[in-house]
């Protein structure tokens, strides 16, 4: 397993619609394992394939934050939201592609998601709490959408400029 570099916003690959996965290959399994390792290393609770430059509909997540609790690494292939609650929840979200920037985003409090696992089996689960926020944030990535797209244009611009500056500084190192 390898820790892969995470793309930092702004990057055209973070704005693209990802392709559905059509075949479960060894390469895809290796990508999923790398993505989990990259996510835990960051550390983060979710990571979508386009964030490591893989333009396919796959995401990983583990919202168990208690270090004493058993981890629950999840790999979701071709995830689809099949139901959303009317009730909403506001979370201060962040993103591994937008380091150290956080903002309140309101989303449905609970969602039902259908996906394919790494064995090719169909799965469906209803998520609540941080899991619901995380899975919606990651599915957005597969559609080229970032959490800052929910903010006002002014706030979004401010964060984007900060990221451009960060990238310029990184490039100089
Ligand atoms: Zn993100």
List the helices and strands and how they pair.
Layout: H1 26-41, E1 46-48, E2 58-61, E3 74-84, E4 88-95, E5 98-108, E6 111-116, E7 122-127, H2 129-142, H3 153-172
Antiparallel strand pairs: 1-2, 2-3, 3-6, 4-5, 6-7
This protein binds zinc ion (ZN).
- The sequence of SSEs as H and E is HEEEEEEEHH
Total helical segments: 3
Averaging pLDDT over every residue, what do you get?
97
State the secondary-structure class: alpha+beta
- Architecture in CATH? Alpha-Beta Complex
Query: Which small-molecule species are bound to the chains here?
Result: zinc ion
Shape: globular
| Distance N to C terminus | 26 Å
**Poorly predicted ranges (pLDDT <50, ≥5 residues)?**
none
What is the CATH domain class? Alpha Beta
Binding site for Fe cation: 95, 137, 141
EC number: 3.5.1.88
Active site: 138
Protein name: Peptide deformylase
Write a structural description.
This protein is an alpha+beta fold and 173 residues long. It has one domain (12-172): Peptide deformylase (Peptide Deformylase, Alpha-Beta Complex), CATH 3.90.45.10. It has three helices and seven strands. The protein has helices spanning 26-41, 129-142, 153-172; strands spanning 46-48, 58-61, 74-84, 88-95, 98-108, 111-116, 122-127. A five-stranded antiparallel β-sheet has the order 1-2-3-6-7. A hairpin with a 5-residue loop joins β6 (111-116) and β7 (122-127). The model has no long low-confidence stretch (mean pLDDT 97). It binds zinc ion (ZN). Zinc ion binds at residues 95-97, 137, 141.
């Amino acid at each position: 397993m390898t820790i892969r570099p995470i793309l930092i916003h702004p990057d055209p690959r973070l704005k693209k619609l990802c392709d559905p996965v059509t075949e479960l290959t060894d390469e895809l399994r290796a990508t999923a394992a790398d993505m989990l390792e990259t996510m835990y290393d960051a550390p983060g609770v979710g990571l979508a394939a386009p964030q490591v430059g893989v333009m396919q509909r796959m995401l990983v997540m583990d919202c168990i934050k208690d270090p004493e609790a058993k981890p629950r690494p999840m790999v979701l292939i071709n995830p689809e939201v099949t139901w959303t609650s009317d009730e909403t929840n506001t979370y201060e979200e962040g993103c591994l592609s937008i380091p150290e920037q956080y903002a309140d985003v309101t989303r449905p409090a609970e969602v039902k998601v259908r996906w394919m696992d790494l064995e090719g089996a169909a799965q469906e689960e209803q998520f609540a709490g941080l899991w619901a926020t995380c899975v919606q944030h990651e599915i957005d990535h597969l559609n080229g959408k970032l959490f800052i797209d929910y903010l006002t244009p002014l706030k979004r611009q401010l964060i984007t400029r900060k990221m451009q500056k960060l990238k310029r500084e990184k490039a100089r190192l």
